[in-house]
Write a structure and sequence with these properties.
Layout: H1 2-24, H2 34-70, H3 75-147, H4 166-180, H5 191-203, H6 207-232, H7 237-252, H8 273-283, H9 297-310, H10 313-345
Helix pairs in contact: 1-2, 4-5, 4-6, 8-9, 8-10
Length: 346
Amino acid sequence: MLRTAATLHRSLACARPLVRARAALPSAALPFPSAVAYRAHAAPAALLHASARQSADADETTNLRASAGSGQGGKADKERARKDKERARKEREKERAAREKERERARKLKEKERKDKDKARALKLREQERAKARKDKEKADKLKAKTTKKPRTTSALHPPKGPQNSWQIFLSDFIADKKASLAEGEKLASVSALTQVAKPAYQELSAEDKAALQERAEEQRRAYPAILDAWKKTLTPADIREENAVRTRRRKLGLSRKANLRLEGEPKKPMTPYFLFAQEIRAQGLDSDVLRGQTDILEQTKLIAQAWRDLDEAQKKPYHDTYAEARERYNKEKADFDAQHAATEQ
């Protein structure tokens, strides 16, 4: 509409000089009457107006075609062009953001793959280090086992054999006789085989022969304490300490119940409060209120233990006091004994 008004304005501007020239002529000078003069005067104006309208329409068509072809037409075209440009810019920004997002995703994926590889590499390295540490420890333990002397669980001493019973004496004599009767180059049968042969022979012995064997067994039993004491006197304090350590280990492992050896003159440990109480009950005999005629040792032990648990602290106090005094005396005597033997060993 603005272009149409501008075109009309230009057409009117071109027609004004003609209208002015026509208006300058006096009406009297015209040869026509006033009505005719008016029609004659109005006809050129209408003609000019029509011509101006046609020129404006042509200019508008030209301008519209030019604006459609160049894209630089009126305000609407400019607004449309601006919007198209803005839309294109936004599309480019969107595409650019999408590409950036894709690059960021690819970068994060690559970073994650790198971290996973580093993590796997570190885990593998730790496993290798642990395996190496285990292997080194096993190697060190084996070397230590070879170079470190294990605590003994078998006695290094060779005490005299204990007394034999009648069957053992007969079997020893039987094997000795068989060995003495072997021909030159003949081998003696195994002990188990000889034992199977000796059993029927022992059972067929007369009462007199068995009594004689029993007498020999009694003689060995009576003589053994002196033999054992004589052997113990040959032991040094170091021998006894080592033997006692072996016996303690064997008791802990359930392999033996042998008590520790004592050096000659070594003070004995005092009895605990419970054993002082048990000794007192046993001294009262089977008719005591605790034992009540019980003869079985295991049952007696159970009765004494229950009686001890039934005592209150005031009733137990005399036994604890006796043990404390004996313990103090033992500690002093043991310290003097150890000092004396330490000086002897030096």
